[in-house]
């Protein structure tokens, strides 16, 4: 899928047209789903969280974090991406947001989808990010690469998403956000 088709499919969706919402709850977070435009192909950028972090150590995620009080969720996603990987907000074309994603740890995540050109380098914040990597969007669009499973977690049965790629295991809220993006991109528009 090239960027023109991606933009067309994404922008037609009602969820992408909704405005940014200010935070009133400290359990709200925002993430940026960075879609890198290589001209003839699109990649999704991921971070791997540092192992010493209290929440989700070592897990694969999108750049993001807690929304500050009265901060707009889009601003929080861009701020966190800048802090974590050195991505300047001016380098991102925000297309819109996906539906909110609840986590088993009590957070509500607002995912923002943004297009960007390939960057010359990344400036990782070592306190939060152990590394970054990219995956071709086409990998996730293929249904056979998207899985669901159930697991007892925190006293109840949780239905989780997983999307393995090479030696990486993308799961939980990150995989659920990706799954929603894929459904949105694949929806019949006739």
Write structural notes for this entry:
Keywords: Hydrolase, Magnesium, Manganese, Metal-binding. InterPro entries: CoAse, NUDIX_hydrolase-like_dom_sf, NUDIX_hydrolase_CS, NUDIX_hydrolase_dom, NUDIX_hydrolase_NudL_CS. Belongs to the Nudix hydrolase family. PCD1 subfamily. Its cofactor is Mn(2+); Mg(2+). This is CoA pyrophosphatase. The structure is a single chain. The protein is of the alpha+beta class. The protein has a single domain, classed as Alpha-Beta Complex (Nucleoside Triphosphate Pyrophosphohydrolase), CATH 3.90.79.10. The chain has five helices and eleven strands; from the N terminus they run ααββββαββββαβββα. The strands form two sheets. Strands 1, 2, 3, 4, 5, 6, 7 and 8 form an eight-stranded mixed sheet that branches. A three-stranded antiparallel sheet has the order 9-10-11. The radius of gyration is 16 Å and the shape is globular. It starts with a helix and ends with a helix. The model has no long low-confidence stretch (mean pLDDT 83).
Unreliable stretches, pLDDT < 50, 5 or more residues?
none
Q: In total, how many beta strands?
A: 11
Text of the CATH class:
Alpha Beta
Q: What is the second-level CATH architecture?
A: Alpha-Beta Complex
The fraction of residues in strands falls at 35-45%
Q: Structural class given helices, strands, pairing?
A: alpha+beta
Describe the sheet with the most strands: 8 strands, mixed
- Average pLDDT figure: 83
Query: What string gives the helices and strands in order?
Result: HHEEEEHEEEEHEEEH
Which percent bin holds the helix content? 10-25%
| Measured distance between first and last alpha carbons | 18 Å
What is the radius of gyration computed over CA atoms, rounded to a whole number of angstroms? 16 Å
- Kindly identify the CATH topology: Nucleoside Triphosphate Pyrophosphohydrolase
Count helical runs. 5
Query: Looking at this structure, what is the CATH superfamily?
Result: Nucleoside Triphosphate Pyrophosphohydrolase
What general outline do the C-alpha atoms trace? globular
Number of domain modules: 1
Domain Nudix hydrolase: 26-157
Cofactor: Mn(2+); Mg(2+)
Keywords: Hydrolase, Magnesium, Manganese, Metal-binding
Family: Belongs to the Nudix hydrolase family. PCD1 subfamily.
């Amino acid at each position: 899928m090239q960027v023109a088709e991606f933009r067309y499919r994404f922008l037609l969706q009602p969820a992408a047209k909704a405005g940014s919402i200010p935070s009133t709850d400290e359990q709200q977070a925002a993430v940026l789903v960075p879609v890198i435009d290589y001209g003839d192909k699109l990649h999704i950028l991921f971070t791997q969280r540092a192992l010493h972090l209290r929440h989700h150590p070592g897990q694969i995620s999108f750049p993001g974090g807690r929304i500050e009080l009265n901060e707009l969720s889009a601003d929080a996603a861009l701020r966190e991406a800048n802090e974590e990987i050195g991505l300047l907000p001016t380098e991102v074309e925000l297309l819109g947001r996906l539906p909110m994603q609840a986590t088993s740890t009590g957070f509500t995540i607002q995912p923002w989808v943004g297009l960007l050109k390939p960057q010359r380098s990344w400036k990782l914040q070592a306190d939060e990010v152990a590394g970054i990597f990219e995956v071709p969007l086409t990998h996730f669009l293929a249904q056979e690469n998207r899985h669901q499973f159930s697991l007892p977690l925190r006293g109840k049965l949780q239905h989780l998403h997983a999307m393995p790629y090479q030696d990486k295991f993308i799961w939980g809220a990150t995989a659920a956000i990706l799954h929603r993006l894929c459904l949105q991109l694949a929806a019949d528009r006739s």
